[in-house]
Amino acid sequence: MADLFDSSKAEKQPLAARMRPRNLDEYIGQDHIVGKGRLLRRAIAADQLSSVIFYGPPGTGKTTLARVIANHTKSNFITLNAVLTGVADIRAAIKTADDFFKLYNRRTILFVDEVHRWNKAQQDALLPWVENGTIILIGATTENPFFEVNKALVSRSRVFQLKALTKEDLMKAARMALSDVERGYGHWKVEFEKGALEHLVDTANGDARSLLNALELAVETTPEKWNPEARIPEPAWGSTIYISKETAEESIQKKVVLYDRDGDYHYDIISAFIKSLRGRDPDAAMYWLARMIRAGEDPHFIFRRMLISACEDTGLADPYALGVVTSCADAFDRVGLPEGRYHLAHAALYLATAPKSNSSMAFFDALSSVEKEDVEVPNHLRDSSRDAEGFGHGDGYLYPHAYRDHWVAQQYLPTELVGRVFYTPSTQGYEAKIRDDVLSRREMQISSILENISPEKPETDASCGMHPLPHFANDFSNPIGEWWINRNFSQNNTVKSENLTFTPKDERKESALDRADKSWRSRLDSNRAEVLLSIRDAMINLARLTRHTRSLVWNADDGLLLWDVSRKTPEGITCGICRSEKGKEIMEQYGRTLDDLDRPILSVRPQTSENYLSSEGFKEVLNSFAEKEILFDRIFFRDPFTSQDSADVLAYALNETKSLVSSDFSVIISQRIPSHGQRISDLVRSQVLTGIGSKDSDGENGFPKKFEYILKKMELAENEFFSDKENPLFNWNADSISESFRKYGFEVKSASKVVTEKRRISEAEINKWFDAKNSAYGTALSAAVGNEDLEKIKNLLVTASQKTLFNWNTEIEFITVSVIE
């Protein structure tokens, strides 16, 4: 068995091998996987790793991550290279793992590099041992594991996708190598001509191994002699090594275009190319075409896809498109490369600028109908040459050429499908010219057929002898098959990001989360639950969570957000701040059936003398999580503000704690605005007095005039009360909240939504509202309306409250706060 991590003769290893990180603190990039607080980092730190597959392009750190795990774990660690090993090596590894488990009760972590190179039988050999926990598999692959790795192994593993390193990551790796005296070139002063190091980074194209190999070549070939292991090192320690731009260019001569003829990049790039043609973006089409040709893609494959696009996407909007692409493909076969690139570009530009119609999808809608229904050919359309005399086949057929314009209205579809519309011309290009004619003939055809329909029995409810259209009439307006719309379109303008992680569905975990999620709903009446769910869903949508997002939920013990956020971020982490120790205990009880790494981390919020969050308390909370190596990407608040001061404090606290959250964090807030709350005068007018009529209903809307007059005075008093600039409860709104954050340089977006809750109002509540002595609201109304008139409105409301379920309107402001990029 090969040991990929043998540390002997380290000095003679290439720079890329010597500079492999030894722990997570030295690991560069892949923050979505090993960033502070992410699931994988916590699993490695706790030595509770389950089977995982690392998937990504070369040089992104897959093997390095396995090495870090090997340095950290207390489990037995075995490494295999799928290219160099066979079934015998697998059996030997399994035997070793089994012995360790039986003798020492220790698991074995088996790292398999290039795991996709094993055949199905080799991968199957591991299944029982992965299943029973004897072996924890770490697979590394450059191919999509969902296609290239045994499905049974994938279903038992978490999948983490590693992305090409950014330029900042590569620059950091280069500077670490240049400054490291033990493994790199820290003994020398390596200087670069302006732009030389940047050229190495740019050309490496996200591959750290390529960068370090090029750096090694540039540094070690520049001095006349390179013998650092000599008794007197050459060149001498402390001497300057100057790397010119020419040397850098020679060290890494060609930028490698990441592409594989059979893997994800092959299909992703051709997909981007076709979608650019469909979207009529000639610039993007040229870029993706160049990417494919530069990487050596087969031009015939590209032409094949363009021939499909000519009919699928351009279609009859430009019937000549197919001929143009076919001609270009024929010309390419005669000319070949490199001149044939003109024909590729010609065809692509024609398609990218042609009008578009996918009306040929009508065939697939018809195919769907064929699969659902097996109907007979109408008699008049049958072949009359064989049995017209015996069965009357073909009888009644109208020969179109015998009629004016060589057309006659008659039935061509089976009787059961009469009126079904499969094809509707678009309004683009050539189809726009034929559209009116096609639709007109269809209308005439339907009219003619309906005249000949003889219903078996008249409709009893048709007073004029008319009969309804057949069941297919609703299909007239269907321009594109429903199957195509459902499959290819959704009403969502948000860009999504690619899933970079995957965890097999855990029924036990889902069941536990469902129970916790439903527990709080069971205590609510149906409408209240609907209102809360609408708030939750809006906040979740604004957060744009990924599977690896790290989230903090404030006041988590209401259970509204905690469990749903946890469910949507299985490879991230969800933490919650509870109002009380009791609330924390309840939430922990619900999460007890989850695995340790899946449970939300809960704590109790700091006590404060104010009735809102203090900046010190907020910083204390974030510090406590930072000590656990958790940095948050999203922070959720529901109704955190009670005044403008509370908004100012949170804005200040966020600005002071930027170092304790991720660089691209955002805060999602839902906030009720007290000054925009339900007006009692409007409630009485629209829900109490509606429908009340009497002989003196001479006011507007049929209300008694005495009530109308009182309600107008009451409305003016309410408007004045809720807009009082001296009252800290009402002198703030969404604009002032946004301004609090913007003055610290944050980007703020807000949107409001009015939610209607069905609620009963008790007599005690009404008495409290209208109490002129103990209620500021009652005092204001009494002064403006008068006690006698106010008592009339109060009595109306009390009477109505005994039998009315009121619609109570509340304005919710949704605010997102993020760092300006």
TrEMBL record:
State the Gene Ontology BP annotations.
DNA synthesis involved in DNA repair; DNA-templated DNA replication
Q: What is this protein called?
A: Replication-associated recombination protein A
Q: Does the keyword Membrane apply?
A: no
Which GO molecular function annotations are given, in alphabetical order? ATP binding; ATP hydrolysis activity; DNA binding; enzyme activator activity; single-stranded DNA helicase activity
Gene3D superfamilies linked: 1.10.8.60, 1.20.272.10, DNA polymerase III clamp loader subunits, C-terminal domain, P-loop containing nucleotide triphosphate hydrolases
The entry's family comment says:
Belongs to the AAA ATPase family. RarA/MGS1/WRNIP1 subfamily.
Q: Which CDD domains match?
A: AAA, HLD_clamp_RarA
This protein's UniProt keywords: ATP-binding, DNA replication, Nucleotide-binding
Superkingdom per UniProt: Bacteria
Q: Which PANTHER family match?
A: ATPASE WRNIP1 (PTHR13779:SF7), WERNER HELICASE-INTERACTING PROTEIN 1 FAMILY MEMBER (PTHR13779)
Q: What does this protein do?
A: DNA-dependent ATPase that plays important roles in cellular responses to stalled DNA replication processes.
Q: Which residues form the AAA+ ATPase domain?
A: 48-169
InterPro entries for the chain: AAA+_ATPase (IPR003593), AAA_assoc_2 (IPR032423), AAA_ATPase_RarA/MGS1/WRNIP1 (IPR051314), ATPase_AAA_core (IPR003959), DNA_pol3_clamp-load_cplx_C (IPR008921), MgsA_C (IPR021886), P-loop_NTPase (IPR027417)
